[in-house]
Design goal:
The structure holds two protein chains of two kinds.
Chain A: H1 2-8, E1 31-32, E2 38-42, E3 52-53, E4 60-61, E5 66-69, E6 78-79, E7 84-92, E8 100-107, H2 128-137, H3 150-154, E9 164-169, H4 178-185, H5 187-201, E10 205-211, H6 215-224, E11 231-236, H7 245-253, E12 268-272, H8 273-285, E13 291-297, E14 305-310, H9 315-321, E15 331-334, E16 341-342, E17 356-360, H10 378-382, H11 389-397, H12 401-407, H13 418-422, H14 429-444
Parallel strand pairs in A: 1-14, 9-10, 9-12, 10-11, 13-17
Antiparallel strand pairs in A: 2-8, 3-5, 4-7, 5-6, 7-8, 13-14, 15-16, 15-17
Helix pairs in contact in A: 4-6, 5-8, 11-14, 12-14
Chain B: H1 2-18, H2 25-33, H3 47-56, H4 69-79, E1 89-93, H5 114-119, H6 136-140, E2 146-148, E3 154-156, H7 166-170, E4 176-180, E5 185-187, H8 195-201, H9 211-215, E6 221-224, E7 227-230, E8 251-255, E9 258-260
Antiparallel strand pairs in B: 1-4, 2-3, 5-8, 6-7, 8-9
Classes of the chains: A alpha/beta, B alpha+beta.
Chain lengths: 445, 283
């Protein structure tokens, strides 16, 4: 099989091939949108503990100024996305559902919104713990969607040696092309970020995994890299979920992350190209994370494209700016259509982990009624982690959630959605698994 | 083959003797008197562990809330112990926002399960705290004590409810609590939004106006994060006086089997669901 992978490109077993649908946005340069009149910055935009606010009501803040500090190691700093006045710290709607404490800032009208607040650092003089601390200080979290704090990912527990930093430029979700544009337009920042991350984890080499539907990005990266240098580009096949870290490691390094383990257990750390670009741009300048690139696409959008959106911009404002024509029956998804989160309110803000906004039309035209399982086995054939979604689904239907976890490895499921996508009977398998995981988590408490 | 059969039978016969474990025959008798619902309302895992606990004297027969008092008395007579007194606990829902009074902001499609809906951006209800009305509690209740009414709001049958805690565990919005029967005053709302925002989502919301706290005896009710909170350590002071001036009827008094609103509460005559708040996406 080794020589065949030359012909087909590197990849992982199983998975699905959803249509790419990136034509509308991938050739459009990243553009900036106007600043919304009111910004909502949730204290918890990341995995871990919420940040502690540093500002009070009616306080004036400068763009880039820290407005909340990290509460312990499992938290990150937040920075003001705009120059303006703090309206208050209130419970505000978020994409996840429950209202969370958020800092609401009224944007100062007519301000140039230049970043005035920066603490440049000489990166050469920092040792590894100081580097990790500096990364926490710029408030960086994974830009791919999970919003895992980057400093936590880059601090490897004692006893583990990292030999390879894998950089994820796959962007396998349909519609999204933000990472693609970042690789093209911010190539130097990506590479600078990779060098910083390699130093932080102590890796000797880095591989940037890019899907083969982005030849221009591969060419752009290769043009900036030495042929025999420590950083290389690995072309992987366009397949979903190629951008999942475990799948990417499998494709590039032929290593498997064992069940219940993390990539660092096998000497690998994975980061997204968007995260690397932010790291390479912000850390040398000592600025905080105040904006990110978001793909806005889908049939309900007049001006699809990649936009530089300040963190905390309300979704309603963003959609107005890009010409939202969807009806009230539209699905609005934060993230990609496969793993993203559908929102029930337009008042939710764009947070650090939102890689895209996809507006899909009313799906009622299709027949999405659930039918009985016909035991075709398609879900088993596509599950990238090798689970049996069919049996798991049947157990979930009879509420055997503990059995699912103990005997069917439910917790290895990362909700990629391949099984639901392929199921000819329209069984919402991932929804079942999410219910099961949620109830199991509560049972542990 | 026959020899082998005899040999194995012999081993089994010896094993039966040597490995015999004595078990009190009264455990089986007690189990026959118990409902075998294995609901866990008594505090132990099931009916057989409860029978064992009864024999050891850890628990009193009245702890079984599924059995009738007659049956529990039989158990007490058989064991020669007192019946004991245990106040029944009943599940109560801290939400009164059915579809005719609480607005929705998005339509939810997908599995008919509150937990599934709550995982998708909190579900389609306008109020982030409120009951989603998809009936996870109705499905999980082993005693047929919870039914959704015509507005999609669960109604607990206080006679059938055993206080087994299943609905408390299953509700993704944590709206159920177990309350002793004597707690007749309660607040059927968990919305923490400030008054105007809360009223935009629901007509029976607690707006934290503070009238109940002013009317009730000192210290019984306090206002906390835009909600009235009852201090049940002072439950003896509670009376229907607290509910009289509530403008929305969010604080109720249990009269017989059904909760009663105060006379000052706005009357809800609407029967059909409220229209959606604004043209918005479905979940």
């Amino acid at each position: 099989m080794g020589f065949l992978s030359f012909l087909t490109g590197l990849t992982f077993p199983r998975g699905v091939h959803p249509p790419g649908l990136k034509e509308d946005t991938r050739d459009k340069p990243i553009r900036r949108l106007p600043f919304a009149p009111r910004m909502v910055v949730p204290l918890q935009q990341h995995f871990g503990r919420p940040a502690r606010p540093l500002v009070v009501k009616h306080q004036e803040v400068l763009r880039g100024q820290p407005i909340a500090e990290a509460d312990g190691f499992e938290s990150v700093t937040l920075h003001a996305p705009v120059t303006g006045v703090v309206e208050g710290i209130e419970l505000m709607a978020t994409a996840r559902g429950p209202k969370t404490e958020s800092i609401v800032i009224r944007t100062a009208p007519g301000d140039s919104q230049v970043i005035h607040w920066a603490r440049p650092q000489d990166l050469e003089r920092l040792n590894r713990p100081q580097l990790i601390q500096a990364i926490q200080g710029i408030g960086l979290v994974g830009q791919g969607g999970a919003a895992f704090p980057t400093h936590m990912k880059l601090s490897v527990p004692d006893g583990y040696d990292i030999d390879t930093l894998v950089v994820n430029g796959c962007e396998c979700e349909p519609y999204l092309s933000a990472d693609h544009r970042i690789m093209l337009e911010q190539t130097d920042a990506v590479i600078a970020g990779i060098r910083i991350a390699m130093k932080a984890v102590g890796a000797d080499r880095a591989i940037i995994g890019v899907e083969d539907d982005k030849p221009d990005a591969i060419a752009a990266l290769k043009a900036r890299l030495d042929k025999d240098g420590p950083i290389s580009v690995g072309q992987v096949r366009s397949k979903y979920p190629q951008g999942s870290e475990k799948m990417l490691i499998k494709a590039l390094l032929k290593r498997e992350v064992p069940s219940g383990h993390f990539p660092y257990h096998i000497g690998v750390v994975v980061n997204n190209v968007g995260t690397m670009a932010q790291l390479g741009t912000l850390l040398p300048r000592g600025e905080g994370l105040v904006e990110r690139v978001v793909t806005v696409a889908g049939p309900g959008i007049t001006r699809p494209g990649n936009y530089r959106v300040p963190i905390g911009t309300p979704l309603r404002y963003l959609l107005q700016q890009v010409g939202f024509t969807g009806s009230d029956a539209s699905h609005i998804i934060l993230g990609g259509p496969m793993m993203g989160n559908t929102v029930s309110s337009l008042d939710v803000p764009i947070t650090k982990g939102v890689s895209g906004v996809v507006v899909l039309p009313d799906p009622e035209a299709e027949d999405t009624r659930m039918q009985p399982c016909i035991r075709c086995g398609h879900c088993v054939e596509v599950c990238p982690v090798g689970l049996n979604p069919s049996d798991l689904g049947k157990l979930a239907a009879v509420r055997q959630y503990e059995v699912m976890e103990e005997r069917y490895h439910l917790n290895d499921c990362f909700e990629c959605g391949c099984c639901s996508y392929i199921c000819p009977s329209n069984i919402p398998l991932v929804q079942y698994f999410r219910i099961a995981k949620s109830l199991n988590r509560e049972r542990l408490k | 083959m026959a020899g082998l059969g005899v040999l194995l039978a012999g081993i089994l016969a010896i094993a039966n003797r040597r490995l015999y474990v004595y078990e009190d025959p009264r455990i089986d008798q007690l189990e026959d008197l118990l409902p075998r619902a294995n609901c866990g309302a008594c505090g132990v895992a099931g009916c057989r562990p409860f029978a064992e606990a009864l024999l050891e004297g850890h628990l009193e027969p009245a702890r079984c809330t599924v059995n009738s008092t007659d049956m529990n008395q039989q158990i007490a007579d058989m064991l020669g112990v007192a019946l004991g007194s245990h106040e029944r606990q009943i599940a109560r829902l801290a939400c009164a926002g059915g579809s005719h009074v609480a607005a929705t902001r998005a339509r939810y499609q997908g599995l008919k399960s509150c937990r599934a809906a709550a995982l998708v951006s909190g579900g389609g209800k306008g109020c982030t705290w409120g009951c989603l009305g998809l009936g996870d509690c109705e499905v999980v209740c082993d005693f047929d004590a919870i039914h959704l009414d015509r507005y999609g709001l669960p109604v607990v049958d206080p006679v059938r409810c055993t206080g087994c805690n299943d609905c408390v565990d299953v509700c993704p919005k944590n709206l159920f609590t177990l309350q002793p029967e004597s707690h007749r005053l309660w607040v059927a709302c968990l919305n923490q939004d400030p008054q105007d925002e809360a009223m935009a989502h629901c007509q029976v919301v607690c707006t934290a106006c503070g009238r109940c706290a002013a009317d009730a005896p000192e210290g019984l009710i306090r206002m906390e994060s835009n909600l009235a909170v009852i201090d049940y350590t002072k439950n003896a002071l509670a009376s229907p006086v607290a509910i009289q001036r509530c403008p929305t009827g969010a604080i109720v008094w249990l009269e017989g089997q059904a909760p009663r609103k105060g006379s000052g509460a706005r009357k809800v005559t609407r029967k059909e669901p409220l229209p959606r708040m604004e043209p918005l996406p479905r979940v």
